[in-house]
Each structure stands twice: as structure tokens, then as C-alpha cells.
Amino acid sequence: MNKRTERRKKIEHAFEEFRETVGLALGAAARDHSRAAVAHARSMFDLWLRQTGVTAAVDDPAFRRCLDNPLLKPVVQQALEEHQGIFTGWTGQGPLELHRLVAEAAPGPAGEPWQTWLGQAGQRDGNSDVPGLWRVGTAVIDRAPEREEFPAAIPLLDESHLSFSSTPETRAQIEGSVEALLLRLISFFQPGTVQLHVWDVAQLTGALPGLYPLARAGLLTVHDPARLHELLDEFAEHIRRIHTSVLVDGRPSLRAVAEATGRRTEPWRVAVLFGNRKALEEQLQQKLQRIARNGLACGIQLILVDLPITVNSPLETIRVGKDGVVRGTMTGPHASVTLDPQLPREQVTKACGAISESLLERRSRVCSFDDLLPEARWSSTSSSGLEAPIGYHDGEPVSMIIGDASPHVLVGGPSGSGKTNFLYAMLGALVSRYSPDELELYLLDFKEGVSFAQFTPGRKDPSWLPHARLVGVNVNADREFGLALLKFLADEMRRRADAAKHHEVTKLEELRAEDPSGRWPRIVAVIDEFQYLFAERDAVTSRAVGLLEDVARRGRSQGIHLVLSSQDVSGIEAFWGKPAIFEQFVLRVALPKARRVLAETNLAAMEVPRRHAVINHDSGVRHGNEIARVPDATSKGTFDALQLDLWQRRAESLAEPLLFDGEKVPRLSTVDDYAALSPGAGVPTALLGQVIDVSGSAAKVRMVRSPGRNVAAIGSVLGDAAGVLGAAALSLARQHVPGEADFTVAYLTEDASASARSLAEELGAAGHGVDLIDLDGIREKLDGLAEGLNARLSGTGTEAPRPHYVLLYAIDAAYPLLENKNPATRQSGLDTMKFVLKHGPEFGTHVIGWWRSAQRLKSSLIGGALDDIGSWVALDVHGQELSSLAAGQIISWAPRPRRGLFFDRFEHAKPEVVIPFSIGISAGGGEL
């Protein structure tokens, strides 16, 4: 009994311990479950809180029961503390910093309240300091601990397009905001710098009516809802023109061009397109996308309202959600935007009217020559090209750009249309901007006038244009001078090409960068009435056409530019079948009633009024037309005053320009080649006349001691022949010390006596031995010369030969006397003369003679003696008479007053035109 009881108690005790242990285990599990449930609830609440936002949760009544739960309060407290920590750097400081940044990036009307600027026309020209941001409203960070507003602004011009997306209830609000933004744009810049285009799919009129006063000045264009394609085509053509005529030097955008040149050449075109939340037709949509992709670089800005678009280009968006909250890509998804309200309609209309009036007033102002000039002289570089205003249109400057894209200029207009005035205006605008180190001018006027003579020093006005290196006037009879200019340009082009090749570059801009110490100015050659250069069907025209084509085609890369001016280019036969020449003249200028300068279908020149010009940088096609009113540039106080100012600024080392005046005879004493002569400088050289070239050099014959070094002047004109003989004698005398050389001056006609005597006196005064003889002494003189030469040939002569120059005036007049034979020797005087011509040069005896006709020369020197005349100057002699004197060449030459044809068979392949010198000595009451 006791054992059973004891066993029972043990069993009961064990069960009690088991129950206690199980109870403890179950209690611990319940506590762990409760703690896990609380932790899970807190985790889920924390996640829920963070997704919703602690500030939104605190304000949401649905969350209040959770917030009152003591178990969740720590979670809320921790979230609030973390939220406060996150915005520690923002609160107070962030909005202030954004205010500062927007004020800096959006100055004036771009960001200030409208009350400070509305109604005032802008003053900025868009060349620089374009705002980086434009205000559209204010914004707040939704979950910030404190509601602090900051300005909402967006990038726009040249930076990004803009797209608005509204709801039906907020469309009017969006339109008001768009209007306010556009007013900021047009009020910031000078009127005309921004042009507005408005298109509304739903209505012909009604969109942005407050801006309509701008249309009066052409600042606003409202487009037909059914003609969106015309607007898009217009923009597409504008983009093509900008890329082909402006963005040709490697710069990617108009903004880059403005930054490099300091001037924006095109206005911004802002297109505001109102849609209906539906995509456009596929074709229109593709056009719009292409314009959006390429338009920013070309100054086209799109502002789209409820018009869906997907494009790979910068695009800011402002969307109104279904909840009415406005958000934008610039402010991000965590900020809500309050758009600026619509401005007072009455004040908007008044402001637009004031802007239009300002533009119309500026357009009505007649520009003057001073308006073409920059504030600072010589402040531009010609490295990438030349640009200058040529006139004004609607108050805005119209510029000419001469560079790689438009390398050459063709100017046309009938007599009295203002070509000379235009050229003066163009040159004035250029020379005031570019220094002589940046620009050189070569100026040639084929008409009978002295329009360009002003650029050289004169008797009354000693000033001259520092940029001018060569000025040619009255050259209508000297077409060879135009040929010489083209040859000079071709040679200079090759010189620059060689330098570019050496530096492994291809363009002048690159050459100047690689060789900064070199002098590589741009060259502009202006040829007025250039058609005269190609007027004849002869060798001059043939060579000129070839050179012109070469310079026009290859000159652009070497900075050599042509400006050709003419009354009419259609009748120049030399260019028939050669359209490639004029294709290089991309820049066309048509003055009133000009024909064949612009494209055949472009009749703008027939409609343009006096003192205006059509400036076309697109080979004359109509869409490239710009109309400019050209100011008076020829009256006293215009170009002449500018030239005086620039002349006073010039470097003292800068040489005067060379003047070639076809009506003036060059004076020997003023020729550089004559001034450079001195005794003992080498082989004596005779100067016979001035070669028609760009350097004003002299025609030279080297009097070496070899056969044939004799000179003949051929023709009947005493003055010209005396000029040739006198220049030869005086130039040779200058190269010998006094007494070193002998001169024989023989005059065989009474007409030539004065010239011969004056020359003999001049030579004697220089210290040289001079033997002056007439017809009676010529035979004896020739016989004496022949005797001396014969002695030297036979070896019996003992004295060293002295330089001896025999000048024979009208030697053919002595033929009757010289034809008589010496009874003892059976030799005639002509035989003696031929002997002297043949053997004299080898012993320093040179004949410089004047024959009054080519036939008389040839008849006296038959039997091979013509070869003893190695050089000649033909005066009033026709080309066909000279063939036998020039190795049988066919010579095309018609006599011209005060001109001669010079040939040296030892130096020349073909004869060249020369001008006999005036030697400045008296003869018979006149001057030679």
C-alpha cells in the first residue's frame, strides 16, 4: 500500500513537472509570437510609411488610428527624425541657393517679376549673354518639412524644346503660362531678334490673342490650321540654308558662330504649336521630328502644347496630372510646380504694341555710312573669313560674308544703279573692321574713270588706304593689266598652297594657326567692269579666262577672293560654255534692274528700289534673297573721312599702294628698278619702259658681252622712240662711274636733234664721255667703230675695250648715205653697220637704235643680220610685221598710243606690252 502510494505520488509529480514545463514552453512561444507580430507590424508600417511619405501619412486621416497606437509611435518618431535629417541641408539653404542661381542665369525679363519689365522693348542683341534659364513659375518640394518656394525655370533658346501637357480643365491656364513665357522672350531682346509663329489645330484665330499686335511689325505669324506643312517646310528650308551657307566652317550651331564672331546673324524662330492630345499625321509627324532634331542648332525653338512627340533631342516637359498637380522634368517628380498666371490682358496688348512700334521706328530710320562701321577699328580677325554689314533692312544690318562658303562676289547693275557707291560701302565696312595685316586689297577699274584713285595719295589729299596694295584706273585700253593681276593672284595662290603643304594643312585658317609668325592676310581683288578684260577674242582673253577659272576654283582655300562688278555678264563670249566659273561666285549682289546676276527665275532686282541691293549668298536662287538699303558712301565726309582716320592709324613702315593709271606716262626717275641701279652692281642693264604688271617693274635688257645684245626701237612716233632710247641710255649711265663708259648719240633727222642733244647734255652732266653727231658724221663714226672692232678681232688691238653705247636716232634716214660703198674697201655704210651690230656686243659696244618702220629695219639687215637685234620695242607697228623678228611667231598686236610691244629673244617666249618712260628731260620746248 505504501509502495503503491509512493509510486502514484512520483507519477503525479512527474506529470506536474511536465505540465509546468509545457506551460512554460507555451508561454515563451506566445511571448515570442507576440514580439514577432509586433516587429512584423512595425516593419510593414515602416515600409508603408516610407512609401506613402511621412509628411503625407501625418496629414492623412486614414493613418491616424495607426499613429495613435503606442506600439507604432517609435516607428513614426524614427521616420520623422530621418526625414528631418534628410532635409537638413535643404531647409533654409536650398531654396535660397536656387533663388540665387536662377537670378544669375535668368536676368532681367528672363526671370524677374513682370511688373519690372512688361511694356519695355529689350536692348540686348542676342550676340552674347543669352539667358541659360527662363522662369515659368514657382515650385516646392512635396515632402519637405517646411513649405519653401523656389523659382521654377527651364533652359530654352538654343538649349531645349519645351512641351506642355494639360487637361481640358487646365488648358487655359497653360495658354496663359505660354503667353507669359513668350513675353519674357520678346521683351529680353531687341525687337526682331525673336520671331514668333503660332499654329493651333483647332482654330484659325484665338490662340494667344494678346500677342496679336506683334503681327503688325512682322514679329508674329499666325498660321492656318490646315497648312502646318507649309510652316514645317519653311523651317526645313531654313535649316538647310543655315547648314549650307552659315555653318560651313566647322562650327556646330548659330550660337557657336555668335560666340566666335561676336554677332548673331539670324533671329530666333519660336514656333508655338497647339494640338489636341493626338499625334499628327505620320508625314507631318516625321517632319516635326526632323525639325526638332536639327532646329536648335539653327535657331528654331519649338513650344508644343498637347502635341505628342518623341524625338532624340533636348526636350523639357511640363505636365498637369489628373490630380491637377503640375510637374516638370527640370524640377523632377518630387516637386510640384505652380505656373505663373496669365498676365493682365490689357497690359499684354499694350506691351506688344510698344514692342512693335519700337521695331517699326527702327526700321524707318535711314542708315548712314557710319552705321556700317564698328565701334572699334581693326578689331576683327579674318582667319575664318570676312563679314561686314553692307546696308540695313527693317532696321537690321544685312551682312556680306566672304569665306569658304561664299568665296567670291558677283556684282551687277546697269549704269547709274549705284555700283561704285556699293563698292565703296562694301570696302568701308571691311577696312574698318580688318587691319592691313588681316586684309589686303587689289583694286582695278576698267571703265574710263578714277573711282579707285581716291585710295592712293593725291596732290590735294596725301592720305591713302592702308589696305590697298595695288590700284588700277583708266585701264580699259590696258587689258594686260587685268591679266597681270590674275597672274599675280594665281602665283600668290600657289605660294600659299606650298606653305600649306609644308605645314600639312589645307586652308588659310589652319595655315595661320600653324604659322602664327607668318603674314597671311586675306586678299580681296575688286575688278570693276571686268567684262572689258574679256572683250576681245585674243590671247589676252584666253589666258585671262584660264587664270580666272583657276583662282575662282582654288582661291577660296587660300584666302584669295574675287569681287567682279559689271553692267551685264550675259554677253561675255569668253564664258560661254564655262558655267563653272560663275558657279564659284556664290555671293551675288544685284542692284536695281540688274540682269543675269541672280538666277533666271529670281526677278527681285527688277523690283528693288533705288539705293537698294539684293544680297544673295545662295548663288542667286530666290530663297537666298536679302534686301538691303545701301547708304551713301561717296559723299564728302563718308569714305574719305574713314580713309583719313585709317591712314593716320597705319604703321609707319607700311608702303604706299602702287597706282597704275592708264592715262599717265610713268616717269623713269620714280621707278624702283631705276632707283636701285648703281655702278658695279653686275652686268649693265638697259631699262626700256614699264611692264604692265602689278609691281610696276621695268622692261630690262641685260647688256652682256655676247652676240645679239643690241636694242631696236621700231615705229614712227618720235616721242615714244626717244623715250625708249633715252631711258636705256640714262639707266646704263647710272651703272657706270663717271668716265668709265662712252656714249655716242647720233641724230639722223632734224626732228630728232632736240631729243638727242638733251640726252647728250644729260649724259655729259653725269660725267660720261659723249660724242654727239649728225647725219654728216655717221658714216665716219661707223667706220671708226668697225675699224676698232676689226683690230680687236685680229688681235692687233692693245687697249682693253671700254663700254660703248651707240644711240642712233632715226638710223634709217641715213640709208641713202650709208648705201654708198667705199671705193677702197668696196664696203657700204650698211655693211659697216651690220659689222658693228654683229661683233660690237662681244667687245662692249652695243647699238640702241631707232628704226622708223619694221620694213626699213628688216631691209637693211637681210642675210641673217636680224639675229643681231636681240631685243626690240615695237611702237606703232602691227603684229604681222613683227613675226620675223620673233622667231616666226604669230603676233596679235594692234598699235596703241603710248604703248609698245617688247621682246627679248634671250628671255621671252612671247612679246609683252610696255609703256615707254618719260625721261624728264627737255626736248624742243617739251619734255620727254
TrEMBL record:
Domain FtsK: 395-600
Protein species of origin: Allokutzneria multivorans
Entry keyword Nucleotide-binding: yes
Annotated PANTHER family: DNA TRANSLOCASE FTSK (PTHR22683:SF41), SPORULATION PROTEIN RELATED (PTHR22683)
SUPFAM superfamilies associated with the record: P-loop containing nucleoside triphosphate hydrolases
InterPro entries: FtsK/SpoIIIE/SftA, FtsK_dom, P-loop_NTPase
Domain of life of the native organism: Bacteria
Any Pfam family hit: FtsK_SpoIIIE
Name recorded for this polypeptide: FtsK/SpoIIIE domain-containing protein
Binding site for ATP: 413-420
Keywords from the named record: ATP-binding, Nucleotide-binding
Signal peptide per UniProt: none
